[in-house]
Amino acid sequence: MVLTAVVFVIVAPDGNGTRAVAFLIVGTTLLLSVLTSQERSVVRRRRAIYGGALIVIVTIGTASGVLPRSVSFALGVLVTVAVPATLTGGLLRLVRERGVTLQAVAGGLAIYLLVGLAFASAVGFVSEVSSNQFFAETAGSTASQRVYYSFTVLTTTGFGDLTPARSVGRALAVLEMLTGQIYLVTVIGVLIGRRVETGSIVRQKTQ
């Protein structure tokens, strides 16, 4: 679902509808994370009801244009960050109980994609509340450009076709670069390494 949200925002035409659908996809991911957590059923049900109601309201408000863009972007950051916060506990528990499975690796990669989406929403928020343009190359920015830019920064690819024009944007870019690289080296690197190590041990036992 996270990968679907990333691809959808990049290819879909810019507008309230696109932002609403993207928010709905990420919000649904958050609800699924809550419902599949190890919390008590009463707690999960309560969180799912309140969270679901909020997601529906924000989605409708975004699609209709009633909700200000700055508020929509801020809520997008909060919801996108809430998903990794919810997934992390379950991911750690899964690794402790079953080792590094393919499901654990997929969870780690999903969190990485969510980080990119969260920074893209942060770029949108800064663009809305600032009187200055965010990118040096263009006065405005579309959702597709923001997500594309976010992942080129997160992966330190840096094509250079979109660059921040102001110090706030540069600081945000540095923070995203550091987050992306530290996450890849530590979390993803450890998960992949242990996965390969586990596979080698299993093959040795079968031989």
- Name of the CATH architecture: Orthogonal Bundle
Mean pLDDT: 87
N-end to C-end Cα span:
38 Å
Q: Examine the coordinates and then state which fold CATH places here, giving the name of the CATH topology.
A: Helix Hairpins
Tally of separate helices: 7
The domain count comes to 1
> Can you write the helix and strand succession as a string?
HHHHHHH
- Report the helical percentage: over 70%
How is this fold's topology laid out?
Blueprint: H1 2-11, H2 16-35, H3 41-64, H4 69-98, H5 102-129, H6 143-154, H7 167-206
Which features characterize this protein?
207 residues; mainly alpha; Helix Hairpins; 0% strand
What can you tell me about this protein's structure?
- This protein has helices at 2-11, 16-35, 41-64, 69-98, 102-129, 143-154, 167-206.
- It has 207 residues and is an all-alpha fold.
- It has one domain: Helix Hairpins.
- Helix 1 (2-11) packs antiparallel against helix 2 and helix 2 (16-35) runs antiparallel to helix 3.
- The longest helix has 40 residues, at 167-206.
Quick synopsis:
The chain has 7 helices and no strands.
